[in-house]
Design brief:
The protein is an alpha/beta fold. It has eight helices and 14 strands. Helices cover about 20% and strands about 30% of the residues. It has a seven-stranded mixed sheet with strand order 6-5-4-3-2-1-14. The chain has a seven-stranded mixed sheet with strand order 7-8-9-10-11-12-13.
């Protein structure tokens, strides 16, 4: 399985509109972050979260095929690219399956009412909503949903074999921590240096990683408070900041 980090930034992206901070002005490409999303390529091609930057991400990585999308939760930066699956749906000749918790599906039906109404406008994306109620498979990939919390909001992380993807989290129940043991790669939310009400700070993310002890942890969803090189210097050797375009092979 090939794993590509399509975006590693927080909801505003980096650079942030109108911001002149040194990270937003940085010429280091690893400080330039699209909204967080992950591409999985095996016998099938799957995207976790259709970010606001989905169209650009698909073009940047030359994606011509999409077998399914999976949603962690319904916040704007994770879902608003859904309409841009249209050309990939047309190319495949079928609706794109979209997997999410029942609660997230309800929000998608509201946000994208025009996609799911009985009187659909012609020439729009074809999406087949599918509820996640337990482990599921897409082609040769098996996904185990893992409930975590983003403030008071339930969010789904996913374990795919030896890799897990956990975004937008500030609390992981013990029952979910058990499902994250024995990983090769953990991809984990790490927003900024300071604590946040609904995201792990870098320190909290690193502490979680050290408790779980995967071979390697990559942090995602970083804000413009975090410079790539400086942030990495503060982390233990087994934990690193990710960056857009990073590729893992499993």
């Amino acid at each position: 399985m090939k794993v590509t980090f399509l975006g590693t930034g927080t909801s505003r992206g980096i650079p942030v509109i109108g911001c002149g901070c040194r990270v937003c002005r940085s010429t280091n490409p690893k400080n330039q972050r699209l909204r967080s999303s992950l591409l999985l390529e095996s016998q099938v091609t799957v995207v976790i979260d259709t970010s606001v930057d989905f169209r650009l991400q698909m073009l940047r990585h030359d994606v011509h095929r999409l077998d399914a999308v999976i949603f962690t939760h319904a916040h704007a930066d994770h879902v608003l690219g859904l309409d841009d699956v249209f050309p990939l749906s047309v190319r495949s000749g079928r609706a794109i399956p979209a997997y999410a918790s029942p609660e997230t599906l309800d929000q998608l039906r509201i946000t994208f009412r025009y996609l799911f109404s009985e009187n659909r406008y012609p020439g729009i994306a074809e999406v087949d909503l599918r509820a996640i109620n337990g482990p599921f498979a897409i082609g040769d990939l098996r996904f185990e949903p893992i409930e975590v919390f983003h403030g008071d909001m339930p969010v789904l992380g996913f374990r795919i074999g030896d890799l897990a993807y956990v975004t937008d989290v500030n609390r992981i129940p013990d029952s979910s921590m058990q499902k994250l043991e024995g990983l090769k790669y953990l991809i984990l939310d790490g927003l900024r240096y300071r604590p946040h009400v609904s995201h792990f700070s870098l320190e909290q993310a690193a502490a979680t990683a050290l408790r779980l002890q995967p071979e390697k942890t990559y942090l995602i969803h970083m804000s413009h408070d975090v410079d790539h090189e400086e942030g990495n210097q503060l982390l233990p050797p087994s934990v690193s900041l990710s960056y857009d375009g990073l590729v893992l092979e499993l």
